[in-house]
UniProtKB/TrEMBL annotation:
Pfam families: HTH_1 (PF00126), LysR_substrate (PF03466). It comes from Aliikangiella coralliicola. Residues 10-59 form the HTH lysR-type domain. GO terms for biological process: DNA-templated transcription. InterPro entries: LysR-type_TF_proteobact-type (IPR058163), LysR_HTH_N (IPR000847), LysR_subst-bd (IPR005119), WH-like_DNA-bd_sf (IPR036388), WH_DNA-bd_sf (IPR036390). The lineage of its organism: Bacteria, Pseudomonadati, Pseudomonadota, Gammaproteobacteria, Oceanospirillales. Belongs to the LysR transcriptional regulatory family. The keyword DNA-binding applies. One of its GO terms (molecular function) is sequence-specific DNA binding. This is LysR family transcriptional regulator. Keywords: DNA-binding, Transcription, Transcription regulation.
Length: 293
C-alpha cells in the first residue's frame, strides 16, 4: 500500500485554498506542508495542485484525488477525536471571536466556566467587531449579533435579544419624548452599528434612518454618551439594565421595540469541527437556554 504521508496536508490545502492557510490550520510551517504535498505528487507521478504566486488551485487529477481523499481524512479525524473523547480531556487552543457588551459580560464568563472544566484547554478570546476569516485567523467560532449576511457560514442561534431605546432624563427634559419612531428625525441619535433602526408595532415593521452627534461601535461608549445626554440610543436591553437601575437612563418608544433580534454562534461551513469547538458550542447553547435579556 502506498504511503498516506502528505494526504492530510493536500486535503487541507484544497479546503483552504493555500499553503499558508493550511499550515495555520494544521499548526505547522508552510514549508512542511509544501514539502509533504510535493512528495505526494512525486509518488503519484502527477501534479495535484497548480501553483502561482497568488493562487493555488486543483488540477484535474487533483480534483479527482481530493474527492476520494476528503472523506478518508474526515473519518481519520473523527476516529482520533472519538478516542480522545473517551478520555474527555480537551486540549489545544480554542479561538473565539466576540464583540460587544454581551460577549464581554456574559459569553466570556461562560467560557471561563468551560475552561475550568477542562484544565488542559487554552482559550483565546478576541474582542473585535471586524469580520473574521475563519481559516486565515484560525478562529473556531464567533459570537455575532443581528442579521447575518454570509451564507457560506453556519449560524446556530444562541438566544433572542429584545431591543430597547433609551435616553437620559436631562436629554428628554430638554428635547422632549418621542412618541413614534418617525419622531426620531427631530432628535439626536447615538449610532452604534448602523444608522437604520428597525422597529415593530402590531406586527408592522418600520425602518427609520437616524442621525446624531455621536457614533461608536463600542457598546460601553454608546451607553456613556447616552448617560451624558448626547441623544437617544437603541441596543439590546442588557446594554442598559445597570444604567436604568441607577436612574441614569429612561426607556422610550417601548411599544415599538423589536423582539426578534438574536445572537448567534457562527463558524465555518465544514463537516469537521475540532472536538473542543463542538463541545464549547454545545456548552454555550445549554448555558443560555433559559437566559432572559
Amino acid at each position: 500500500m502506498d504511503s498516506f504521508e502528505g494526504v492530510v496536508e493536500f486535503v487541507t490545502v484544497a479546503q483552504t485554498n493555500g499553503f499558508s492557510a493550511a499550515a495555520k490550520q494544521l499548526g505547522c510551517s508552510t514549508s512542511h506542508v509544501s514539502r509533504q504535498v510535493s512528495r505526494l505528487e512525486a509518488r503519484l507521478g502527477c501534479a495535484l495542485l497548480a501553483r502561482t504566486t497568488r493562487l493555488v488551485s486543483l488540477t484535474q487529477s487533483g480534483t479527482a484525488y481530493y474527492e476520494h481523499c476528503k472523506d478518508l481524512v474526515l473519518g481519520l479525524q473523527q476516529a482520533n477525536e472519538q478516542v480522545s473523547m473517551q478520555q474527555f480531556q480537551l486540549n489545544g487552543t480554542l479561538r473565539v471571536s466576540g464583540a460587544g457588551t454581551f460577549a464581554e459580560q456574559f459569553v466570556a464568563p461562560a467560557l471561563m466556566e468551560f475552561a475550568l472544566q477542562h484544565p488542559d484547554l487554552t482559550i483565546n478570546m478576541d474582542f473585535n467587531s471586524r469580520m473574521v476569516n475563519f481559516v486565515e485567523d484560525g478562529i473556531d467560532f464567533a459570537i455575532r449579533y443581528g442579521k447575518l449576511t454570509d451564507s457560506g457560514l453556519v449560524a446556530r442561534k444562541l438566544l433572542d435579544r429584545p431591543m430597547m431605546a433609551v435616553a437620559s432624563p436631562d436629554y428628554l427634559k430638554q428635547h422632549g419624548i418621542p412618541k413614534r419612531p418617525d419622531h426620531l428625525k427631530y432628535h439626536s441619535c447615538i449610532i452604534s452599528n448602523n444608522d437604520h433602526w428597525s422597529f415593530e408595532h402590531n406586527g408592522i415593521a418600520s425602518n427609520i434612518r437616524v442621525d446624531g452627534r455621536w457614533r461608536s461601535n463600542n457598546a460601553h461608549c454608546v451607553v456613556a454618551a447616552c448617560e451624558q445626554g448626547l441623544g437617544i440610543a437603541y441596543m439590546p436591553k442588557s446594554s442598559f439594565i445597570t444604567s436604568i437601575e441607577r436612574g441614569k437612563l429612561t426607556p422610550v418608544l417601548e411599544p415599538y421595540w423589536r423582539n426578534d433580534a438574536s445572537s448567534w454562534i457562527v463558524y465555518q461551513n465544514r463537516r469537521y469541527l475540532p472536538m473542543r469547538a463542538r463541545l464549547a458550542i454545545d456548552y454555550l447553547v445549554q448555558h443560555f437556554a433559559d437566559w432572559q435579556e
